[in-house]
Amino acid sequence: MSNTNRVFWWSLIVALGGFLFGFDTAVISGVEQSIQQLFQLNDWWHGFTISSALIGTVLGALYAGKPSDQFGSKKVLVIIAMLYTVSAVGSALANDLWVFIAFRFLGGLAVGGSSVAGPMYISEISPANVRGKMTALFQFNVIFGILMAYVSNYLLSQLGDEPWRWMLGVEAIPSFAFFVLLFWIPQSPRYLVKIGNTESARAVLNMINGANVERELQEIKAGLTDSKTSEKRLFTKNYRRPIWIAVSVAMFNQFSGINAILYFAPRIFELAGLSQMDAMFQPIMIGVANALFTILGMMVIDKVGRKALLIVGSLGMSICLGLIAYSLYFQDFSGLGVLFYLVGYIVFFAFSTGAVIWVLIAEVFPNSVRGKGQALGSFTHWFFAALITFLFPVVSSTPQGGGYSFAFFSLMMVVQALVVWKFYPETKNKTLEELGRELSG
């Protein structure tokens, strides 16, 4: 097996964590109404129950970085795979509300942790000339997992007396496969050097590249030394602008309504008048559009630029969200009309905010605080994801409430377009060092 193929397979195995990330995030859309009926939840408790996984995600994203540094991202990924498996089985078998919440919370920890440890591992084992493609493999698998969750929900929606249990439980199959396959990948050479195991690091580097191994070892050692000597505090006045950009782009990502749509798509279609089976099928169209146009965004982001994509996408999303709000509030359009507007929204989201958020957060911070800055951006993203997921079923319990929700999302996208146009820099074709000097101080 060639070195490149070997790295590809290692990356693909780790990217299964991204698949489970997406699957776990979207699978709840097919079961949330059954959960509400089973446990007789009012709107407040319904929102809390569905957002319980996202509370775990916030904590997982916030705290996964330190154990990844201390014990290696491979070991953290093994624990994450175990959490995914236990969460899937436990959630499917739960007959008590708090038991269900606890197992969904464990799944959320896995989602948050995989969003940190997965890309970290892939970037550490990938040669520079293919690092972007390999890391993008994780991001694409997140979108693919979302699509497969919608397909799975549709295919299992009529299975047995309680199909929701099968919808949640089926995730245990890829989760267990992820757990087993992780034992085939090595520890990253960066971690091995960090713990003083230079010989093992040299062996892994030989499998990755095979050329200039000694030089790479010295560069890794030098980089680890520099990171220790240049460690700085994030929350200082020098980093006000990158902090503002990272926090705002993560916040607006969720104020676009994306998680409300991913989690509650069938409910939205039922509000628009579709049958339950049609409401289960239509999200598949959303998942396909999301996957295709995420690929488009990844292809053009370095040519068109982050700022232009965000502005065009924000305005397009605002129009589509406004039409959905009008449709739900006045009930003047068919469910197919809502599907058309939602797919249009996903198209604009996927190639703009969906493609830009993690790239921009990683670019705006200087080297000395980039890890802390990425953790802040990730925390902000998942915090607002949990908040929106909690509030959406409370506000949208009626068609008019759904109209108000989407009107809010539409307005926020107009605000995002203005903020990006006025305050965001264009980061394409600039080195990280150039951006660090431009945005800091």
Secondary structure topology:
Blueprint: H1 3-27, H2 32-38, H3 43-63, H4 65-71, H5 73-93, H6 97-125, H7 131-156, H8 163-169, H9 172-181, H10 189-194, H11 198-208, H12 213-229, H13 240-255, H14 258-271, H15 276-304, H16 306-330, H17 335-351, H18 353-364, H19 370-395, H20 399-423, H21 432-439
Protein structure class = mainly alpha
Q: Largest sheet, if any? A: none
Amount of helix: over 70%
Distance between the termini: 48 Å
How many DSSP E strands? 0
CATH architecture of the largest domain: Up-down Bundle
**What's the CATH topology label of the largest domain?**
Growth Hormone, Chain: A
Count of helical stretches: 21
What's the pLDDT, averaged over the residues?
82
Q: Would you mind describing this structure in some detail?
A:
The protein starts with a helix and ends with a helix. The protein folds into 2 domains: 1-185, Up-down Bundle (Growth Hormone, Chain: A), CATH 1.20.1250.20; 234-441, Up-down Bundle (Growth Hormone, Chain: A). Helices cover 81% and strands 0% of the residues. It is mostly helical. It contains 21 helices and no strands. The mean pLDDT is 82.
Name the descriptors.
single chain, 441 residues, mainly alpha, Growth Hormone, Chain: A, 2 domains, 21 helices, globular
